[in-house]
Every structure is written in structure tokens, then in C-alpha cells.
Design goal:
- This protein has 536 residues and is of the alpha/beta class.
- The chain folds into two domains: 298 residues, FAD/NAD(P)-binding domain (3-Layer(bba) Sandwich); 111 residues, Flavocytochrome C3, Chain A, domain 1, CATH 3.90.700.
- It is 35% helix and 18% strand.
- Strands 1, 2, 8, 9, 10, 11 and 18 form a seven-stranded mixed beta sheet that branches. A four-stranded mixed beta sheet has the order 19-17-12-20, with helices on one face. Strands 13-16-15-14 form a four-stranded antiparallel beta sheet, covered by helices on one side.
- A hairpin with a 4-residue loop joins strand 10 and strand 11.
- Helix 1 packs parallel to helix 4, helix 1 packs parallel to helix 11 and helix 9 packs across helix 10.
- It binds flavin-adenine dinucleotide and succinic acid.
- The site of succinic acid (SIN) has 9 residues, from helix 7.
Length: 536
Amino acid sequence: MEIRTDFLVIGSGLAGLSFAIKASRFGSVAVITKKNAMESTTNYAQGGIAAVTDSDDSFDLHIGDTLRAGAGLCREDVVRFVVSEAPGRIAELIDWGVEFSRKSGIPSAYDLGKEGGHSRRRVLHAADSTGREIERALLDKAQSLGNVRIYENFLAIDLIRESKVRGRASLPREERDRCLGAYVFDIDNDRIDTFRARFTVLASGGAGKVYLITTNPDIATGDGIAMAWRAGALVANMEFIQFHPTCLYHPEAKSFLISEAVRGEGAVLKLKNGTPFMEKYHPLKSLAPRDVVARAIDIELKKSGDDCVLLDMTHRDRGYLMERFPTIFNRCLQYGIDMSRDPIPVVPAAHYLCGGVVVNGHGETSIDRLFAAGEVACTGLHGANRLASNSLLECVVFAHRVCERIRELLPGSAEEELPIPDWQSGSATESDESIVIEHNWDEIRRCMWNYVGIVRSNKRLERAKKRMELITQEIHDYYWSFKITRDLLELRNLSVVANLIVACAMMRKESRGLHFNLDYPDRDDRYWQRDTIVRR
Ligand code: FAD
Ligand code: SIN
């Protein structure tokens, strides 16, 4: 079946929905999302969204904090416009119905949280479930608009390129290919549809599931990056994986984050024997930048042989904790941890991907009519390390800029319509060995955790590369022999992303921000103050 739309949006997180709401004024919008529409990383965001909204704060301070965290790799022009456009985008979110927490006793003022690396309190939040509140409000808004249609359980498989449709095997490097839409797996009807669009926006989020231990939900399998890379788009900085220092450590808790805002309100990291350790590593102690804290925990765990460290908030009273961190408080309680009495066991976990599909300041990728916004994109905002709570901000600022750019391009975008061939399933048959998929998933995630984790070395990266080559070949053979399933598609994408992370990590022969290699422990600004760019 062919479905026509002006704008195809892949993903229903903050980037996708905020673009869809805006773009609906200029044409029809199809938002496809691979599970139910709420299910996104956005939905799990806790700490909040950073923006200068207080008279005690300034754009220069927010810009300075972002650049410092980014360790010399941020694009300063991007940092400047994101920070200065933030208050306008926040006002829109509020206008669309997002309810941020207000100061107790002063209902006219928003309560501002503090997180690592921020020199001021500037994080707007909805208690400790900011993402859920944002998703709720934006989904309500999008669903109320006649021009937006949301397709749930629709999984994008591959982008449709003009060169392929015209039967050209490849284009000369200087020639830009054009995106005509995407082939999409309609999971409920077990069918592959063609979505033809004038403009396609990738808003498919990150790739935390490539690691064994992650704060990310199951949807984060890097599909957008893999699709863009297969289509020939530029991808960059995949080595910069942010590990969040405090993921709940409990055998029954899957991927539950303990927000940095808890440390922002005074929680202290301690060893299992009760000794605080962060003063050895940074003057800001437990509230040092994330890369420093995650590495410090990694070192301490290796030294002590312990399985976790502790996050101690027992000096704050129960009533305060229940009001400020209701989600975290209740979840911990489910596992028998009363955070007003017991320190919380935590470990670092893969959390955020700073790299992604290369875009310019308007979200344009290297492929014509293909845009990217949110975690899938590499915009230059985060450089080598993202400042906490700058990600939700990047989603809204870039969604807005993408919309503005598309609005400019719209008048010249109607032209000859190429017939797009239906998806070819070939001779694929039902698999009788689905267990292979599960094993390969597990193997990739363990391999990445063990060899491409918080601390890397040439030897570990070499090992990862060899293992990934074998697994990738196996997945490739399987992919072309058997009928498509959601797990198989995600596994294929995960393997692409894992290979890209390894490739970028091997290219960067220094340590900077989130990338630490024991064989090159120093930062080398003379040669490496640049992005690691890869292309198929
Ligand atoms: P997402 O919100 O991840 O949305 C991606 C969408 O794409 C989903 O709907 C998904 O189903 C869909 N999708 C993916 N692949 C396909 C496909 N092939 N076909 C169809 N649909 C597809 N950042 C902050 O700034 N502040 C915070 O407080 C904060 N807290 C966080 C807490 C947690 C636990 C985590 C994991 C991250 C947190 N982050 C935070 C990071 C931030 O939440 C994300 O970077 C951001 O929400 C990404 O938004 P997005 O719109 O780019 O992608
Ligand atoms: C958190 O609440 O600690 C997550 C914030 C972020 O990732 O920006």
C-alpha cells in the first residue's frame, strides 16, 4: 500500500511531536512510531529541560556551561542559538499544556532544579517525571489537530532514495541524493507499506540498547542512524556515549534512572562501606560532570570488587523526598529501598548518544529532503559530552528550525513524481531459528559493554571490532534469508550502530569528554579538535 503525506515524521518523542504540531499548519503530517505513541525516551526523562528563565542566570552562563561540558567539540554558533532560543520554545511548551512544577509558596514562579555542570539553577521540571508530562501534553495537542495522523506499531525499515528508485547503483560523492519517504513495517497487519513524502524527518531517538546496561527504554535501538547510514548520509561522533552515573542497581529493576537532580539536591555518592569518594576526583564532588563521575565510579568498583556504589539522600526528610521525587521514591520503595532511610544502590549505565546523523543548523542532513532532530542527530550542541538537561532542549529548538527550513523549501518542492516500487520480500521464508536473534542481541550488548564501555583501550576496541564483524555477517545472512520481524529489524540496526561506535572510537586517538582510551589518555587539541565523520 502507498500512503502519501507532505511530511513523514519517524518517531513520536519530543522532537517528532513538536515538529508535527508546527508542521501541521503547512500540510499533512504522518507520524509513524514503532510501539504505542507514548513509548519514547522522552517519556522517561526525569530531571527536566534547561533554559535561562531566572534573573540570576544569563545566556552567557548557560553557553559557558555547555561549552565546558562539550570539551572543545561543541559548535559555538549552535550552542548560542540553542540557548538563546530556549525561552521561546519553553513558552510554546507551556502554551501547548505542559505543566512544569512551581515553587512551593510562590505559585507564579517555576521551581528550577540543578544538575551536574550547571553553574545556576535552570532546569524546569515536572517533579521527577518531566518527560511523561511533556509526552502527555504534546500527544494531546497533536491528536487534536486534523492534519496530524499518528500510526502506532509502524516501524520504519529503510529510507527510499531517488538514486535507488532510478536504478543508479551509487552517486558521485559531490551529488546529493534525495529522500522520497520510507518503507515501513505495519506490525499489526504484517505488511510493508510505502510512505511517500515531500519531506522526511528522522526523530527516532538514540541507541542505548546497544549496551548491556542502559537507562534507555527498549525502543532505543538506533534505527534512524542505521537507516540514514545505509542511505549514505554522513554520521559523526559515535564514540561519545554518555554513561549516566546513577542507574538503580537491583536484580528486578530494569533500566531505572536515579535522576542527577537527586545529587543536585544534595545526595552524596559513597562506597558500600559508607565512605564518600568523589572529593578525590573533582572539586564539585558528587555533582561533578557526568563523565568524571561515571569514570570515578568505574575505577572505585574495579578497585573494591563491589557490584555497586551508594547514593545517600538520607539527610533529607521523607516528606520533601516524596514531594520532590515521587516517581523515584515510589519505585525504590517497590524494591524495599526507603530513600529517606536507606542509601540507594547505583551503577553507571549507557544513557545518551552525543553523535548521530550529521545536520546543519536547520536540521538538514547530507541527503536532500531528509532532516533529523533530537537524539538521532549530531548538531554540534553537545560536542564530546552533553550538559545535563540540554537534550530535551535540543529536541524543541531543532524541531522548530527544521519546520522553518521546510517552510522555506515548500514552494519549490512540488515536481515530477517518480513511481516507487513496492518493497520486495524476495524468497524470504519464516524463520525456524528465532533464537539466533536473541543470542546476537545479547552478544552485541555484552561485547559493547565489555570492550567499548566507559574506559577503552586499543586492544579492547580491536576485540570488539573482530567480534562485531562476525556477528554482523551472521545477521546479514539471516536478514536476507528470513521474513522480517520487529526483532530482526532492530537487531540489524543495532549491529550497524555498534559498528559505527567502534569505528569512531578507533579513529579518535586521544581521550576527550566521554571517550577515554587508556592508550591515549590525554586530550590532543592540535589534531583531534574535530569531529569523527563516517559515511557508508
Ligand atoms: P525519543 O523520545 O526517544 O523518541 C523516539 C521515537 O522514535 C519513539 O517514539 C520511537 O518509538 C520511535 N522510533 C524509533 N525507531 C523507529 C522506527 N524504526 N520506526 C518508527 N518509529 C521509531 N534529557 C534531558 O534533557 N533531560 C532529562 O531530564 C532527561 N532525562 C532522561 C532520563 C532517561 C531515563 C533517559 C533514558 C534519557 C533522558 N534524557 C534527558 C535524554 C532525553 O530524554 C532524550 O535524549 C530525548 O527524549 C530524545 O527525544 P527524541 O524525540 O529525539 O527521541
Ligand atoms: C537525569 O535526570 O539525571 C537525566 C538528565 C539528562 O539526562 O539530561
